[in-house]
Fold:
Amino acid sequence: METFLKSVAHDLFEKTGGELSRTAVIFPNKRAGLFFNEYLAKESERPLWSPAYLSISELFRQSSGLLIGDPVKLVCDLYRTYIEVTGSDEPLDNFYFWGEMMISDFDDADKNMADTDALFSNLKDLNDMSEGFDFMEDEQKEAISQFFHNFSIKNDTALKSRFTLMWNSLGKIYRQYKERLKTQGIAYEGMLYREVADSLSVEELPYERYVFVGFNVLNKVEHRLFSKLHDAGKAMFYWDYDVFYLKKPHEAGEFISRNLRDFPSELPPSCFDWLNRDKQIEFIESPTENGQARYLPQWIRENLTEPEKETAVVLCNESLLQPVLHSLPENIRHINITMGFPLSQTPAYSFVKAFVELHTEGYDAKAGHFLFAPVVSLLKHPYMQKISPHTANVESELVKGNRFYPLPSELSKDGVLEEAFSPCAGNLSLCERLSSLLKQIATLHKGEKTGDAYDQLYQEALFKAYTMTNRFRSLVEDKELDVKTETFRRLLVRVMSAASIPFHGEPAIGMQVMGVLETRNLDFRHLILLSVNEGQLPQSGGESSFIPYNLRKAFGLTTVDHKIAVYAYYFYRMIQRADKVTLMYNTATDGINRGEMSRFMRQLLIEWRHKVGRKLLAAEQIPDASRLLVIEKTPEIMERMADVFDTRRNKHALMSPTALNTYLDCPLKFYYKYVARLAAPDDVSADIDPAKFGSIFHHAAEHIYKDMSGRQQTVSREMIEKLLKDTVRLRRYVDNGFKELFFKPEGDPSAQAPQLPEYNGTQLINSEVIYRYIRQLLRLDKEYTPFTFLDSEVKVREYITVRTPQGEIRSCIGGTIDRTDCKDNMLRIVDYKTGGEPEAPESVESLFLPARKRPHYAFQTFLYAAIMNRKMRDENSGRTVAPALLYIHRAASASYSPVIKLGKPQVEVSDFSIYEGEFRERLQSLLEAIFCADIAFTQTEVEDNCQYCDFKKLCKK
Structure:
């Protein structure tokens, strides 16, 4: 394959006779020079002086006495100029991000050598002067006319007034800003380029000959530089193109046509007829973005060239770099990655982000506490765990104590944690602390040798993050950057997210992995492009700008049309010399990706006269046969069950109603939870789940009645009416429930919590709902008075014997009754419910039959009733036992009765002894099934039971 650079090297060598010591070869970027040098060396049979290789950016910078300023400092200097010109009191925090946009506009105006006096003039003057712009073409004049047609100065609005006021100040800001920068010896890129283009003396340049290779679109400053060198006879031009898109109106050839006209090429057109030849082009459609990376190993095995450097993988979406690197097959001997690895995909970046978010969004300076989520995010970070041995213990204590508002004091368990979690006094303190932590991490990381291929990369990422943090620190110390901490966070994260770490290697050998821009001037025999989607090639959207489209067009600034034409050239130039081209795109619609092939692919289908192959990439689907998961009760499992449930081995053994309900709903879940003792990880949340909501209500109700009547005291109507009038006291009961069960004090459980909980919005709403539920309960009980309050949160137990073929199990059934009271010799077993729907079991049997709406609550209360009924008999009390479910949210009616109703028609179970025999018989059968070695633990057949199961992923049902 005759590559473009090889042709240029041959032609240049022939025309110069190899005398290149006073020659500079200029490329759009530096990478092409490495390949060019290799081709040039092969032209000579003897050693020769190499020419100088420069990028166009280096050429401009070497020709100027100014230096490119730090991007953050440039915005800060612009802000000072803006304040001076406008007299605005707008803070830098608000200005910063649109200040970047203003510099971008100034940069574009300078690179295209726009008449900035005219462009940034008063809009009314601009309209009046537009007829006198003789330097403009008719199309540009039409663009200005169109702008003022759509933007009428007479029809004013508030937004238009603000734009006009800002626009009329731009000219003065532009001029004073450039003066400010020049006095410091710095510039933004466009300012430096324009200064060189205006003042450059060709005679003062260090080289006799300048060879420009492979350029496409030229801005005005580049065009002027080329013209000066061309007119002085010091320039040679090599343009890379193809007659396929040059002999007809085509966006890919738009700029090359002008370049060839103004600066004729050293190579004849006969060297550029490649796309008219037949070649193998294939379109492959992928259902997902990452699916392309998974297909890549197969493509490489089938298409890797010898030498490997003639094969390239081009990523139109550079975020695919990591999945691509993980997909590369082992048969590749050498690989060269031309694009940098994104800093945002390294642990160093995630550490910086976690740290600054902790000290901005995650810290409440007024309350003096952090938020749980950002604290744990930093504690769980592998770098934090690397430099402090106490992170796991601290996290565990926070979770155990439900500390969703942790204090700095409880996080500072060692010097590192104290440095990380002591509140920062400002941006300088934040930088100093972050810099110190990064240095400690880097020191430890450097001493570790894990053999991980990413070790060196991550080490460099730490260094990059460290140097960038120190750069910001210097700006803050010099008072160049004075913004709020939140703005500082956004700025630091934004700058770091745009940074990358270069890969080390020999660029001229090995298969190439590159972005679209890196392909300029390079040619490959076999080429695969990933993510050739609309929105990726060309990139969707334009950059934000103060300058409206029509004015940009009128003054020759960069527009979206330029951008599309540039990418069209990149696309066609990339494939023109290749023998085999594979273009992949994904059909998934996600974010900016519209799931359609690039316009350039569609264009190629229409324009190219040869056959284009089409394939559909589909992941092989291997159905995961749904299999029933069964856990047999092996001797080991039976031993484990005895250890858990037999009181002879475990004095705390208890078969609770919840455990029995779990078995009835799903035997496998019972095994996971109670036998294997698996549990979902604890979580800390400022939100109140239904279980916590119910617990706080129970706590308040318990303490109300214990304080009101003591044990076995009659509750009268007057007592409840008095309490209902004391709203402060009632709210205190609710607040105390929150303090003890939700806002747990730091450290010692007996420590005093704040007098009033710090409720957020959601918590305040929940507090109010619980308060109203308490009032509802009291109103309902007022209608039931007089009654004797016996006890609340009553622990009940009954020892049982379960006979199995393997022997006896001696266990215990029981739980905690919310409340017991007595009236007219009827003992009520009351279970409070703050959610759910009232249950009316059809029969005792229905309590034991698996079903979608099996009455769980009724089963629990019946179990308590059975235990209490036996106790009443043993004591000869003569009381009847009535199981009751008190649904607070359904108890608005004065005639509401919480006593459970059973059967059809529904009858209140006011005397449980009628049903006790059948209940106990079925309970005994259930217990025997649980402890029978021949009955395995199986999955439930009621799929609704799986919806919120903690073990859903484990059993894969």
